[in-house]
Amino acid sequence: MTNLGCMMIDMAGVIVEADPAICATLRAPAEILIGSNLFDFTAPADRERCMHLFSQVQSNGIPVSTVKRLIRSDSSHLWIQSHVSIASRTSEGVRIHIVVQDGRQPSSTMRPEALLKTARLTFEARRARTEIFSASLFADSAWDILLAAYISEAEGRVLGMADVAKMLGMSVVNVTRWMRALSAEGLVDYEIGDDTQLANVAFRLSCDAHQRFERYLSERYITAVAAVPKPDPFM
């Protein structure tokens, strides 16, 4: 598992030390990170759980590890595994040491830009089809929502229900119904952690869904490249 850096935080979650590797991971210089709260760099859907684990470490001193998403300075998200432990207890308070590693097993050997291009082409092909044939004949709303979510995350954008409805030409009510089904399958995470007001909630692919999507896109890319005829050296 790739080491992405480490940092030290105080009892309030404020970053007091940040090594060059974690600065590169978060795409922010040390002078920006130091003094900022770590939870501001944690995806909203993961924040409450991580704050609870952080409190546990402070109270019982037992190290914990968890998988979560970091929000980098350019708004892109990164799945990481965070190892949290007590570094010291002094008169100035507790210092927490955090080691950050890549949180996902590599699901693809393809370059991220190749995966994103494949996802965009797939999405655009589905949109082009509806311009020629009746959209009602080939409806696959769940798949279209997942595609849109993957593309938005790869581009560093947060996607909401209204955004999806506009992108796919669906009603917000219909998008909400499909979102509940996708959430029940563990394929999406709500940024606020529940679905009480889905029409106003942002969401992202779950870690498992993201890995499976990259595997699917890799297979499609490899198949497409293999289908391109190679030039005849004798012609």
In a nutshell, what does this entry contain?
This protein has 235 residues and is of the alpha+beta class. The chain is 45% helix and 22% strand.
Please give a structural write-up.
- The longest helix has 21 residues, at 112-132.
- A hairpin with a 5-residue loop joins strand 1 and strand 2.
- Helix content is 45%, strand content 22%.
- The model has no long low-confidence stretch (mean pLDDT 83).
- The protein has helices spanning 20-26, 30-33, 44-60, 112-132, 141-154, 161-168, 172-184, 207-227; strands at residues 3-9, 15-18, 64-71, 77-90, 93-102, 159-160, 188-190, 202-205.
- The strands form 2 sheets. It has a 5-stranded antiparallel β-sheet with strand order 2-1-5-4-3. It has a 3-stranded antiparallel β-sheet with strand order 6-8-7.
- Helix 4 crosses helix 8 (207-227) and helix 6 (161-168) crosses helix 7.
- The protein is of the alpha+beta class and 235 residues long.
